[in-house]
Amino acid sequence: MTVELNMIQTLAIAIGAYFLGSFLKSKISILEKFCIPSPVIGGLVFAIFTLILRQTNVAVVKLDTTLQDPFMLVFFTTIGLGASFKMIKAGGKKVILFFIAAITLVILQDILGVTISKAIGTNPLLGLIAGSVTMTGGHGTGATWGALFENNYGLVGASTIAMASATFGLICGSLIGGPIGRRLIMKNKLQGPNANLNTAKAEAAVDVAMEDANETIDTKSLFNTLSIIFIAMGLGTILESVFTKVGITLPSYIDAMIIACIIVNVGEKTGKFKINKKCTDTLGTIGLNVFLSMALISLRLWELQEVAGPLIILLIAQAILMGLFSYFITYKLMGRDYDAAIISAGHCGFGMGATPNAMANMDAVTSKFGPSPTAYFVLPVVGAFLIDFSNSLIITLFTNIL
């Protein structure tokens, strides 16, 4: 029996999967501990359910994921709207240094993934998926590029592989971050409680953050922000056609992100308008949750068995790279002090999962050794928009080279 669900029915299932994931996360502590997203939990449950139906010859479930791309575009456009040069400037040298560290890791993750894939005789695109696509990119970027690799490049099971890799990254990054931060602090006898934000640049950063904190969300601000998002998405399609004519192929969401970045910085430069960050974050979260839920419920888990061996090798190699990089590179580049140790712990969660995992890692270390306000500002600034933007461009470059 074949069960076909239309566009609206699929959306309803995706929303239901999100709430199921939220419920399970509230009841199962390990899911909360490792910051596994609710859409991933609920979506995987549904995907496993459809796998059982298929394997037992009961039914084949077909979903219409037409709405997945629009919600994906909303999410990535909000990232572009967060790319404020004012915020980057306020963060100062530390933000730039950590951005350099994050970009370097992205490049190394892709080089490692492609190199190992070629060495073991598998598709190098698999190496990209198990590289920065899902390690630094997480589930959101993984779902986007997985679908692209599957539909445009013929990599069977790419979306499923991406979700499995991203979930591994979330768990592994959370496991290794705390111990690495603790080791750096203990070995180098670092002192934490004296860390404070007393420089002019740090004070400016706090001022910028306070401006965002004082924003309000109402019907008008939500509608205005959503309108800007849709305008950026529309102009992004025009930019995409321009790029295509000159021989440059970029994923559609990058074009929208570029337009959104231009809009927010023109507004700040001219003072004519301001993007409401709270509205942007709210709409971005909605877009991400629905997008991820739809990506997860449509996973074809039976396709994982063909690449399980190579994938395990790639993911173990990425975990080793992350540990060594944060311990030897991130720590030294960030100044070899207490803040650097905390950022190194956070980088493990950030470089193999997502910003919430990074924050959880830093919480675990600072709760024992003392606060690090600098780390708590620097890492989210890079994680919120800079790295997603840059990571997508680097993945595009590697894809075109391959």
From TrEMBL:
Keyword vocabulary terms for this entry: Amino-acid transport, Cell membrane, Ion transport, Membrane, Sodium, Sodium transport, Symport, Transmembrane, Transmembrane helix, Transport
Main localization, broad class: membrane
Transmembrane segments: 6-24, 36-55, 70-88, 95-116, 153-177, 222-244, 250-267, 279-302, 308-331, 338-355, 375-398
Keyword Membrane: yes
Protein family per UniProt: Belongs to the glutamate:Na(+) symporter (ESS) (TC 2.A.27) family.
Stated role: Catalyzes the sodium-dependent transport of glutamate.
Record-given protein name: Sodium/glutamate symporter
Species classification: Bacteria, Bacillati, Bacillota, Clostridia, Eubacteriales
